[in-house]
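We close this part of the discussion by returning to an individual protein. In the encoding step, the backbone of a single protein was reduced to a row of integers, each denoting a local shape. The sequence in question and its structure tokens are set out directly beneath this paragraph.
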Amino acid sequence: MPTMADVARHAGVSVATVSHVLNDTRPVLPHTRQAVLDAIDELGYTPNTLARSLVTSRTRSIGLAVSAISNPYFTEILQGVEAAALEAGYSLLIADPHDDPEHERKVVQLLHERRVDGMIVAPSADPGGLLAYLTRHRVPTVLLDRIVDAPAGGSPRFDQVCAENAEPTARLVTHLAGLGHRRIALVAGQPGLSTTVERITGYRHGLASAGLPYDERLLVHGDSESAGAERATAALLSQAVPPTALVTGNNAMTLGALRVLRAHDLAVPDDIALCCFDDFAWADLFSPRLTAIAQPSKDIGARAVRVLLERLAAPDRPARTVRLPCAFVHRTSCGCADRPERPPVPLNPTASGDPSSEPRPEQ
């Protein structure tokens, strides 16, 4: 197996120069760098990552802790994280916290003990133990998808990357109201998650914008999963005056709601209209095709990696929250006439007038 010394002899440089090229620890003239890279390629040299980490105190690895990896939304986020990490020369260590606060803290500790350079974490609804651990050990971290409120009057404690939630949900509500619906229900996610809180905020703003009253009986929690959405949707349908339209808070809950509607022999959209937060690959294969909010999931994952690498390069800079815009994908489950599918419509984060969802591409 070729060694670093073999590469140095082949390129006609010192071992130290090869090390600087591999570890990017000192500027190297372009033609010299290319000679080293050519030698590495011709000899088939593989750097000793463990030895390099002992020298640089970096493992060039990132820990990713995300629950429900089987969910298409998080699968696409993972693809974005992996592609961006690979492009930057980093490997991934992945763990599933199962949205359980105690397990969450344990898996993050295990990732930390494996000397990852930093972490990307989608926190649970009760992340106190997680945040305390990350703060105590000063772990460079980006919170993904679900954010944590900043202290009053202060900046966030951690870098955060997520999609806009409030205005896109409001858009679904106002669209349904524009089609004549007056009893619009929301099947919301797990209480305590920032995504749930923000989508409920958007739901209420959408009702207000349409001049409709808020009825607490039309807001139910599906706990971000299919079985919970089945229970929540059944409860809505059992009301004396059931809703005429549903908004579901994520793709798993959309499937649960559809299952219950079918069991009750209700046709979408003839008997009840449906719009969902989260587009997914087969949403346009349903009959009717699902009107949805599409999140930029791969971009969220890739941006989280870039923000983490910026944090590693500048550990003392203020933390920031990056929000990416969603798109409105107009199909037919809302009750609109079928037509060739149009490109998704990007949503303006300020359209709902919600101060909490003002555009924040980088804060």
Remarks:
- Residues 297-313 form the longest helix (17 residues).
- The radius of gyration is 24 Å.
- DSSP finds twelve helices and 13 strands in the chain.
